[in-house]
Amino acid sequence: MRNMKKCCILLSSLLWLCMALWLTGCGSMEKKDEKKSIRIGVSLYRGDDTFINNIRGELEKCAKEYEQENGVKVNMDIQDAKGSQNTQNKQVERFLSLGCDVLCINPVDRTAASVMINKAMAAQIPVVFFNRQPVEEDMDRWDQLYYVEAEAKESAVLQGSIVVERYRENPGSLDLNGDGVVSYVLLEGESSHQDALIRTEWSVQTLRDGGVPIEKITGGIANWERSQASALMEQWLEKYPGQIELVLCNNDDMALGAIDAMDRTGISGICTVGIDGTTPGIEAVENGKLVGTVSCDKKKYAGAIFGIAASRATGQEIPPEIELEEGKYYRCPQQIVTKNQK
Ligand code: BGC
To answer: Contact at 8 Å (CB) between 178 and 131?
Structure first.
């Protein structure tokens, strides 16, 4: 009887040992199954956009760092939609047919994201949108849709506060003709872009709230582009000689365009402010041409796009440092950049 009991104990111990071995074996098999490579499809609304190009550069760095840190090969296919939604839809189809694990899309037409969402949902492939925000109804269609941005109202309030602070320190640096009013012109981005509308509204509002006596001379849409802004500014300088005291720009490229026009016409001393903190924008602040800009942390911006994408592709949790609002929106931190403040 005692021998029988011993035998039973021995057998059950053996059984436990086998199970444990089998389980750890399974664990290592699972390890073998872990993804050794991930495929990410990226589509940019326009590859020649300065800000988007800065983000692209950072995304490429993220992919390299991820490969080094995790030993996972990242196949990142970056395509330029060249301003055509049709081209972008085809790029999405191609990415899906190539077996991409996740898509990162900078939509051409933010109101037409539903076509791309349909395709991604049908293939069960998550999408990280960025910079051009799909409408809320589209974002709410699936819990595997994300959006990364630099919040427009925050950019504008910070931009406005650069001017408010300058006015408080020295009103004469803005009210150049001393008539008690700061006369401004406004260069706006694409009218269909959420950032253009919100930035314009809040930049002007911040000046008012900050007690700067402003008066609008004129404004125009230069579609984020340096050359378009330069052409508009040249016309205004001619039409309103000696009157322009402030140039509010929805982004750095348009601010640089306005500065190009001033340089061409030999005019200086007009306060110009931008948004983005692009490489040429920051350079212009450093050399004193641009009074200030609002810079979003491009490393964090791209890090959020890449981090969400990589975690979706590998089936892991989104890293906690990528703080998402409502489980899907990431808003990148921003800061003022002026010559004295960096
Ligand atoms: C940036 C612009 C850029 C645009 C593209 C904006 O948020 O400020 O510089 O051209 O996005 O969508």
So the answer is: no
